[in-house]
Amino acid sequence: MSGPGPAISQVRNAVRHALEPLAAGDLVLVACSGGADSLALASATAFVAPRAGLRAGAVTVDHGLQEGSAEHAENVVAALRAMGLGPVEVIRVQVGTDGGPEAAARRARYEGLGEAAQRLGAACVLLGHTMDDQAESVLLGLARGSGGRSLSGMAQRQGNYVRPLLNISRHTTQEACRAEELLVWDDPHNADPRYLRSRVRTELLPLMEQVLGPGVSEALSRTAEMLRDDADALDVWAGWALDAAVHREGGLDIEQLEVQLPAVRHRALRQ
């Protein structure tokens, strides 16, 4: 009997590794939009979690920004339940305008996911961000000139959010969905040139691959991981410097901060 295929195995192994810290009986929720990345993640979680003694459910967020979004959300729910996941819910959110449409939708989405996780008692929420998403985040951070922390991209674990697929390419998740004959939804916003991230995805990264050769996304993802380690170390160093500079009568001893390297001093002052 043949195995599940390399793409499916890669995604399952990534999920298996991500779930290792959880305790038997914990509930893990998959955030699924119906796209290839989150569908592959949901399918892998449905396979891996029960074998690890975990409960696995899922949620899909209806932002209400596109015609037919409610019907699409119900279709995603049906697909998730067919995988054996439960509980499965639609989270309907109100998207504001502060910070632009992308930032507002992201904020509403995380608020909805956080509420659902707390209400259902989930130990963690799995997000389907891939290596390609990480590369896009690094380039956007570079364009903003917002420092090493921004260039370090997305963390594998951030609070109760876990991103198992950050070392998996989008091509791999698409291959996994094809192998499992999953019906993938292509969000039109992902190719809409009005959104900066979609232009990075459809124009900038392909051009970089053309000019610099293949492997740009992998290189950017590795860079993000190294920069995150550096940023974490500098934050710890800055914490030590700040503790040493706090005057027992209140305020800061500026002389204690003056002797620190600029990167440490700036972080200490931000803290």
Name the helix and strand elements from N-terminus to C-terminus, one letter apiece: HEHEHEHEHHEEHHHHH
The backbone outline, from C-alpha atoms, is globular
Tally the helices: what do you get?
A: 11
Helix content: 55-70%
Tell me about the biggest sheet?
6 strands, mixed
Mean pLDDT: 92
**Rounded radius of gyration (Å):** 21 Å
Structural class, please? alpha/beta
| Proportion of residues in extended strands | 5-15%
Can you tell me about this structure?
By secondary structure, the protein is of the alpha/beta class. It is 56% helix and 9% strand. It contains eleven helices and six strands. The chain has helices at 6-19, 36-51, 69-82, 101-120, 131-144, 148-151, 170-179, 196-212, 216-245, 254-258, 262-270; strands spanning 27-31, 55-62, 88-92, 124-126, 157-158, 161-162. The protein has a six-stranded mixed β-sheet with strand order 3-2-1-4-6-5, sandwiched between helices. Strand 2 (55-62), helix 3 and strand 3 (88-92) form a beta-alpha-beta unit. The longest helix has 30 residues, at 216-245. The protein is globular, with a radius of gyration of 21 Å. The N and C termini lie far apart (57 Å). 35% of the residues are buried. The mean pLDDT is 92.
Gist?
By secondary structure, this protein is α/β, with parallel strands linked by helices.
Describe the secondary-structure layout.
Blueprint: H1 6-19, E1 27-31, H2 36-51, E2 55-62, H3 69-82, E3 88-92, H4 101-120, E4 124-126, H5 131-144, H6 148-151, E5 157-158, E6 161-162, H7 170-179, H8 196-212, H9 216-245, H10 254-258, H11 262-270
Parallel strand pairs: 1-2, 1-4, 2-3, 4-6
Antiparallel strand pairs: 5-6
